[in-house]
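During the second half of the funding period, the structural biology subgroup turned its attention to how the target accommodates small molecules. The most pressing case was adenosine monophosphate, which had performed well in the primary screen but for which no bound structure existed. We therefore specified the complex as follows and requested a full 3D prediction, including the ligand pose.
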Amino acid sequence: MACGSELLSPSPIEQPLAPATACDEKSAKALQFIEEVTKNTDSVQERVLEEILRQNADTEYLKRFDLNGATDRKSFKSKIPVVTYEDLQPDIQRIANGDRSTIFCAYPISEFLTSSGTSAGERKLMPFIHEELDRRQLLYSLLMPVMNQYVPDLDKGKALHFLFVKAETKTPGGLVARPVLTSYYKSDHFKNRPFDPYNLYTSPNEAILCPDSFQSMYTQMLCGLIMRHQVLRVGAVFASGLLRAIRFLQLNWQQLSHDISTGTLSPKITDPSITECMAKLLKPDPELAEFINMECSSEDWERIITRIWPNTKYLDVIVTGAMAQYIPTLDYYSGGLPKACTMYGSSECYFGLNLRPISDPSDVSYTIMPNMGYFEFIPHDDSSPLTLSRDSPPPLVDLAYVEVGKYYELVITTYCGLNRYRVGDILQVTRFHNTAPEFRFVRRKNVLLSIDSDKTDESELQRGIENASVLLKEFNTTVVEYTSYADTKSIPGHYVIYWELMIKNASRPPTNEVLNQCCLAMEESLNSVYRQGRVADNSIGPLEIRVVKNGTFEELMDYAISRGASINQYKVPRCVSFTPIMELLDSRVISVHFSPAAPHWTPERRR
Ligand code: AMP
């Protein structure tokens, strides 16, 4: 462990320690709050619905369904339909185009949050009201008090947490549209957050708020290295983000170490607010530079996190849902440090937190906090997915009445004006904390492939195949079967598409060049979150097509049938991850192709 004096020595971006008692009192209050709301789940839910409906009684949306100012559950459930984004899209477009009337919410829409979920290839736009920030801040304020129950002394150092803002744009009507965390980091709630010894970051705001992802990451890594002994937890929002940071270190440690050795900042860092802030922080430290050279020049990067940041107690990253694929790599780089999945939320609403944050990833459950919104649940059964029509109201279950072991799809009603909105997440109830259910995040509906925050569904993949196939026409070639795989063995991960081709003119097969272009054509067809990951965030690598021998997909079917699949019902899986299947496919590969360039992407929406 680092010596105490090092932990306590104030850095230029640190403020003096607050008296422990004030913090303890705040923590105790936070824990008491959790107990209170979770003991009264149903009555809190009733009150929340009442508040939301009273607040929005005069909105066009609620009036459209003749709610007539009613605020009770029965009227609400009988009159207001369960909807998807597509149902709301025309009204959302009106707001985006500048309609300032109270369509969804009594409060003015302050901005749009751009969800990583997409509709027609573009990020969904979620109307947001300024007032909601306080509610979300409240949820954030509960996280460390919960964590402190499990991990002591987190006020004795800092978090190396890689936080980024992303591109923002304006709608035709002049409203800002940006991702939820970009909005939060740019808010006064974050920028002018009061001193809290449990929430000190090594990254200065100037680095977090820098829109250039290279400069932001470089500076955050540099600060993390300079303060390496003070670091008590290392993290990013999602596991993919933390691994990207490790990859960044692999690629840039020489320059970083040079900066530390000389006390000068790389010429690649040009953002004036960063250069000004780093001028105060960066002092020549040849000894630290030597240490970084020694650790990073080694071939062996196993446990690199604990070698460079020896006081790290846990990794602060979400490893549930699509992020579970990164657990083995995180374990490799951290020597199996605990991974804390602290909260569950979305652009639409923050849902809740993990009351046992140091649990094994397979045991992670999130308690939906009854004060955050009004929550209903569609019982979910994979074998008979529910279709909801207005004529036969769906049997939605209230938060307090879900049953342990059962699967549900989450439906929310929010203060921002979403009413009975299907989020698209499938959850399973694991247990109850007081009267509040805890949920395991099972998966997002209809998502086939995901590397970072991208989510590609079956129809998007199909469209990609169709668009790429156009290039094969002149070679009289068609794609007869395909499947896909999210390859996260290298960082950043990338999509792999297996193709079985029918080449009608064997003397003129498609050239390598054309198959490479097919990769790019697929990428151009994928949604804007994917393309942003490829272009702006560098969080996704070039798409790969692996052409397999003729007959491979028949072998795949034989394999499935040998394991009990019904021959009549057999469908080619459009995404695979099961090792024996991967091995079969990979052993039949005859050629491999990569996208030769990045697809097009700009923050502006295509429609
Ligand atoms: P976005 O609207 O882009 O912020 O994405 C929100 C979605 O990310 C949620 O609806 C979930 O599908 C996913 N998500 C958020 N938090 C978690 C979590 N803790 N574990 C798994 N998936 C999550």
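Two results from this model are relevant to the next phase. The chain has a mean pLDDT of 94. Residues 115-117, 180, 318, 320-321, 341, 344-347, 423, 425, 441, 444, 453 surround adenosine monophosphate (CB under 6 Å).
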